[in-house]
Amino acid sequence: MRKSTIWLLAGVMVFAFIGLLYLQANYIYIIITNQEDQFKESVKRSLYQVSHDLEIDETTKYLNDQVFSFRKKYLRKGKQSSDPTRIIMNEQQRLPINNPDGLSAKINININGEIDDQLPVLPSFGKSTVSATSKVIQDAMDNYLYYQNLLDEVIKNVSKKASDKPIEERIDFKNLDNYIKTELANNNLTLPFTFAVLDNEKKVIYQSPNYSVVPQNVYSQILFPRDPPNKLHTLQVVFPTQKKYVLNSIRFFVPSIVFTIVLLIVFIFTLYIEFRQKRLSEIKNDFINNMTHELKTPVASISLAAQTLNDTDVDSPQLMNYAKAVISDESKRLGFLVEKVLQMSLFEDGSTQFKITELDANDLIASIANTFALRVEKAGGTLDIELEAMDSTIIVDKMHFTNVLFNLMENAVKYRKENVPLELIAKTANAGDKILITIQDNGIGIKKENQKKIFDRFYRVHTGNRHDVKGFGLGLAYVKRIITELDGTIKVESEYGQGTKFIISLPYIQN
User: Fold this and answer.
1) Could you list the pLDDT tens digit for every one of the 511 residues in the chain?
2) What b/e sequence results for 221-242 when a residue is b if at least 16 CB atoms lie within 10 Å of its CB, and e otherwise?
C-alpha cells in the first residue's frame, strides 16, 4: 500500500473519530446543562414554597392568638349582655334567634364569616313568618360583617407587628429542616443539604451542622419578603453533592466514551504498526540491495580467482599465489558478512549464549589496537591509546566485546574525512564504580537528528555519493545489544563535520 493511501485513510479515520467525540461531548454538555437547569428550578420552587409555608404558619399562629384573645374578651361581654346573638363559641359560632311567632332557630357562622348552608327550613305561617326569616338573615349578615371587621383588624396587626419580632421567635429552626426536606422531596430531590439563615447584613443567625459555603452550590430565598428591607432575612441552602448528582445523569454515557477511546487507541496503534511495517519494508528492501551488493563483490572476486587457477595457460607462480590470496581474503570477508547477519538473527530468537570471563580492559584494548593499527596506517591515519583506568577488570564475553570494539574502530575508518589524516583515539578511565572506554575520531561526524537512530537495526546514515562506505546497518545495533546484555551503557557525542565519540560504561571488579 502506498504511503499516500495510508495517510488518506488515516485522515478519514481521524476526522470520523473527532466528529464522533465532538458529538458525544456536545450531547453530554447538553444533558448536564439541562440537568443543572432542572435542578436549579426545582430547588428555587422548593425554597419558595418553604418561605410561603413559613408565612402561612406565622399567620395561622398569630390568628389563633388573636382569636383566643377576642374570644375571651367577647365571652366576658356575652355573659353581661342579654342579647343571645353575641355569644361566641370556638371556631364556629351558633347564633340562637327567636322569631315573633315563638319559633326558635340557630344559624351557624364560621369564624371566617361564612354562613353555614345547613339553615333550618322554617315553616311558612304567612307574613309574620317571612318577616321573622328576614330578621334572621339580617342578624346573620350583621354577625358576618362583625367578624369580617375582626379579621381585618387581625390582619393589620399581623402586618404591623409580626416583623418586629426576632427571627428566632418567628421560625422554629428545627422544623425548618423538615420543611426544606419535605419540599425538596416533593420535587424529587433527595440529596443531602445544609442550610443557614442570614440577616440583611449577611450575618449568620443560624446554621445547620456541617454547613460550609460552596459558591457554585448555594441557593438563596428571602424569608418573609413583605418585611421592611432592613429586616429581611435570607435562607441559604447548600448541596455538597450537587456535582455528583448532576454527573449521575450521564453514567450511561461512560461505556460509550470508554469504547470510543478504546477504538481510538486501537486505531492509533494500528496506524503505528502500519507505518512501522511500511518503514521495515523499506529497510528490508534497502537491506536486500546492500546485502546483494556486499555479497556480489567477494563472490565475483572468488569466481575470477578460481577461473585464474583453472586456466591451464597460466604458469606464473606469482599469479597463482595472488589468486589464492584473493580467494582467502574474499572468503574471510564473505564469512564476516554472513556472520553479522547471523549474529542479529541469533539475538532475535534469544539463543545467543555468552561465555563470561574476567579480563583486563586495558590489556584487551592494547591488543586490539595493535591489530588494528596496520589498517589505520593504511588509511593514512594514526591510532593513539590512553589507558588511564586504574581499576580495569571487567566481566564480559571476550569474543563479542572484541567485536564491539572492532566495529567502532571500523566505523571510524569508514567515515573518515577525505584528504584529512585520520586521528583515532582509544582510551580508558574510571568514573565512580564504572570504567569508561572511549573510541574517538575526527571523521565526518553525525547530525543531531540521526544520533538517536544510529543504534536501530538496518539504519544507515546517508553519506552522500560515497561508494566506499558499505554495510548492512547492523554494526551499531549489534554493539548496542552486546553492551546492554553486559549491563553497560553506550552513548554517542558528535558534531557534524567535527568527529564522533562513543563512550562505553561498564561495571568493573575492584582489585
Assistant:
1) 677 787 888 888 888 888 888 888 888 888 888 888 898 999 999 999 988 888 888 777 777 776 677 666 655 655 444 444 443 444 444 444 444 444 444 445 454 444 444 444 444 445 556 677 777 777 777 777 776 776 676 666 665 666 677 888 788 888 888 889 999 999 888 888 889 988 888 888 888 888 877 666 788 899 888 888 888 889 989 888 888 888 887 877 778 888 888 888 888 888 888 888 887 777 777 767 777 767 777 788 788 788 777 775 666 777 777 778 778 877 877 776 776 666 656 555 555 577 888 999 999 999 888 878 877 887 788 899 999 989 889 999 888 888 889 888 888 888 888 888 889 999 999 998 899 999 999 888 888 888 888 887 767 665 544 444 455 567 788 888 889 888 899 999 988 888 999 999 999 887 6
2) bebbeebeeeebbebbbbbbeb
Q: What phi and psi, each to the nearest 5 degrees, are found at residue 253?
A: -85, -15
**CA–CA distance, 232 with 222 (Å, rounded to integer):** 7
Which of 437, 436, 430 lies closest to 405 in space, CA to CA? 437
Cβ density class 484-498: b for 16+ within 10 Å, e for less: eebebebeeebeeee
Q: What is the CA radius of gyration of the chain?
A: 53
Tell me the backbone φ, ψ of residue 488, rounded to 5 degrees. -120, 180
- Where are the CATH 3.30.565.10 domain residues in the chain? 353-507
Find where cell 353581661 sits.
80
Cell of 365: 584494548
CA 433/CA 359 separation, integer angstroms = 17
Burial of 385 (0-12, 13-18, 19+ CB in 10 A): middle
The whole-angstrom separation of Cα 47 and Cα 183 is 8
Furthest-apart CA atoms within the chain: distance in Å: 176
Single-letter code of the amino acid located at 26: N
Q: How far is CA 377 from CA 52, 206, 372, 420, 487, in A?
A: 106, 97, 9, 13, 34
Q: Where in the chain is the domain with CATH 1.10.287.130?
A: 251-346
CATH architecture of 251-346: Orthogonal Bundle (1.10)
DSSP symbol at 468: T
Classify domain 353-507 at the CATH class level: alpha beta
